[in-house]
């Protein structure tokens, strides 16, 4: 694949001019839409919903989506794992917009199922190399100063099935192990200071209260930087599958470290080399050695629409190309989009709040002429790191890896509007 | 009530010093918590959730809150209205944190119940003083460039029952007709430009597809400024009770104008004087005349915890005072908190993203000595507008009003930690 960055001509690059071109052709507005105005009974006639009373306010004390949206759900891939208790499902990214993931659609990854924890009986212990071992109830934790931060969480195995070629036909499956919510919690630094960290301490190990007792080693430097002990997501209590009542938030780092049902934080002077950081969550290279402690989720992006599960159904003319970008290093500074498999690139429009280590939404509004496209997006973060091609990744790391695939994704848009997961070479 | 702004002594004002004072007294950490570490079986013994597999990923394709959170729901007040189809329920603000309201907890206000609209059959018409009347399908609208913005929505009648004194014991009821979500939609300006607005046009009138056919007059200047025609909230499709599949977003202005189930926008040269802007949503003054076109929601705030529904249950020592502030004029620049009924004020800590016309979260972390408090908060926005006392409001507008009560709220915290809605004079 060519990595040249020859821009399209300025006229073709202008979003407005592209859109206007589409509109003046009458494919969206103008003739086609005006024709509807003259005789569409769905606007000229009174509909049932305009005629009869609907449900009142007592119908749903906790609301649910419209029945017309029943297809917007998390989905799993049956052959991926043997047991649902140690499996994964995926966020329907192709159906979502903006940068916030609704709590009910945040992907799940469990190692021993969803722990059913009674918050009144839940405890968090801090022990190890501390002056005073401490045990907190949930009420204790809610007496410390709180913070609210919007962060993406990405599983290290997101896009993992793509290392050896295109396997899964939809961004829900290829990229749906990422979500972004606003967390409310207490700074881990504050809790560690409360216990008093000994000068010999260099690492911490969070432990989960589920039956897998998930444990990971985290450098003390990160623990004292921006980690949160969180009890709320998007304003309300954590969902059970996201660690209710307490989870660790490790901004920008792989999701497996964000220990759910958090019950203990041990402070130590060296890493523990737990199962989940030795046989798992390491990157097996071509030479048989494994990279380990690969924590930061590098810059990544994906076009969510059009995509295999969100084909173009409206024919030629104005087309909104929409996608997500994120980086564990900080803010996204730029996303480029190619419609020809990486030969030419156009800078997309970033929209919505730009927050460090959060999802960013990008758009490219084009006039589609009906010819096949090879759609790609490429993210760059504020530190200048950018997303590689899949072949660049393979050249560096071989094809044995499962984790940390942030390669550029290609969607093949066909003339009939259907979309397929492909690779270009 | 005195409006003097004498600050507390610098030492007493320091959040850290207050917290440290509480901690060194052993009320939170230190002796009490360390004692737990020595012998709390809930941390020293393996619990059931640490022993047995939980539910797998196929349990809930669209997730729901923990059963332990069943009390976190919208609630109505039975005596407020005769029929649930033309009623209101309230967001449980006292249970939430941060600035995002989960979609299932956004308050409802209907005039003819929840319209059950089939999105495939829904149409939006733009007509009146335009060059080309247009009718859009939902698919048409999704071909225009999109925006993502986080905005609060407040019903003009929020706190309306407080005009004649304290009536409802809980911030869910006194202030729960406000929520804040991220909307995805198309700029109304773009759609109006598509139709071509005639030079004689000065107003627009959105109309709802529900059985009340809600209609309001909006100045063209606002319509061309920051209004959105929105189809998503917090990433997913609008909820039915929030106007699925389409609603108008009128940032900073009273919620009644954010027409749900939006089916038509008429462009005209004068206001229509509809029912909902004449007999309703106007402010009856003491002299019998009514203020009308009072659209902007002025700066307002409320302490959400402690509050009547969220009493202090942990006794003396560190206490997190948490609340929300918002202004239809733009960003919140400052929130002051008083613990003595408005005699002395301390500037609170604003936390989380600060976005124009969105909710802002504030905190004041104090060491509570167990004595009664008269808690108040007072918001100021970036334009210098600030929240008045209820008596200042009454002096200006009498006591006949229902709408636009942004007066300072007082909570009486008693020595036993229970909290009551009161007024101070």
Describe this structure in words.
Chain A is α+β, with helices and mostly antiparallel strands and 425 residues long. Chain A folds into 2 domains: 93-291, Sulfite Oxidase, Chain A, domain 2 (Alpha-Beta Complex); 297-422, Immunoglobulin-like, CATH 2.60.40. The first copy, chain A, has 9 helices and 23 strands. The first copy, chain A, has helices spanning 10-13, 15-24, 31-39, 41-44, 138-141, 171-175, 188-195, 220-223, 390-397; strands at residues 75-76, 89-90, 123-128, 134-137, 147-154, 178-187, 203-208, 218-219, 228-233, 236-237, 247-249, 262-268, 283-284, 290-291, 300-305, 317-326, 332-338, 346-347, 349-351, 360-368, 373-381, 410-413, 419-422. The radius of gyration of chain A is 24 Å and the shape is globular. The N and C termini of chain A lie close together (5 Å). The model of chain A is unreliable at 1-35 (pLDDT under 50). At the A-B interface, helix 2, helix 3, strand 1, strand 3 and strand 4 of A face helix 2, helix 3, strand 2, strand 3 and strand 4 of B. Chains A, B: It holds the Pfam family Mo-co_dimer. Chains A, B: Keywords: Metal-binding, Molybdenum, Oxidoreductase. Chains A, B: InterPro entries: Ig_E-set (IPR014756), MoCF_OxRdtse_dimer (IPR005066), Mopterin_OxRdtase_euk (IPR008335), OxRdtase_Mopterin-bd_dom (IPR000572), OxRdtase_Mopterin-bd_sf (IPR036374), Sulfite_DH_SoxC (IPR030835), TAT_signal (IPR006311). Chains A, B: Residues 293-409 form the Moybdenum cofactor oxidoreductase dimerisation domain.
